[in-house]
Amino acid sequence: KMCASIHFPQLLIDLFRGGATGGEYDWGIQRWSEDLQDELDLAYFEGLRFYLGKVEHAFGDVELETYCSEAKFKHLLKNALAWHADKFSENREFLDNVKYDLGL
């Protein structure tokens, strides 16, 4: 969902500089923070938390949540960056810089 948006570059900036990003409706990717702990009553976690609210998927009336390491996310992100660059060529230079900055 994130990489299909024309706003993908800004969403990446929000995630890696600010620790969180999210969509117009009900999805998000976050690093642990005290604010997140207070808001959602979450215990400390390593890596990233991925969340999809009910309106963002077709898997019934449930909210989906999973976690993964930043290393795994960066591996998956490499493919998403390539796909997005093919769809939105105007972002290619920025995405190449992101790949370089992340060591992809």
Can you characterise this structure?
The protein has 104 residues and is an alpha+beta fold. The protein is built from 4 helices and 4 strands, in the order H-E-E-H-E-E-H-H. The protein has helices spanning 8-18, 34-40, 70-87, 92-101, and strands at residues 20-22, 27-31, 48-52, 64-68. The chain has a 4-stranded antiparallel beta sheet. Helix 3 (70-87) runs antiparallel to helix 4. The longest helix is centred in the C-terminal third of the chain and has 18 residues, at 70-87. The chain is globular. The mean pLDDT is 84.
Give a quick precis of the structure:
The protein has 104 residues and is an alpha+beta fold.
Helix content: 40-55%
User: H/E element string?
Assistant: HEEHEEHH
Strand portion, in percent?
15-25%
Oligomer: single chain
Shape: globular
Q: Give a count of the beta strands, DSSP E runs of length 2 or more.
A: 4
Order of the strands making up the biggest sheet: 1-2-3-4
- Tally of alpha and pi helices: 4
Cα distance, first to last residue?
A: 21 Å
User: Uncertain runs with pLDDT below 50, 5 residues or more?
Assistant: none
Major β-sheet, in short? 4 strands, antiparallel
Specify Rg, calculated over alpha carbons: 14 Å
Structural class: alpha+beta
Mean pLDDT: 84
Descriptive key words:
104 residues; alpha+beta; globular; four-stranded antiparallel beta sheet
Task: Give the SSE map.
Blueprint: H1 8-18, E1 20-22, E2 27-31, H2 34-40, E3 48-52, E4 64-68, H3 70-87, H4 92-101
Antiparallel strand pairs: 1-2, 2-3, 3-4
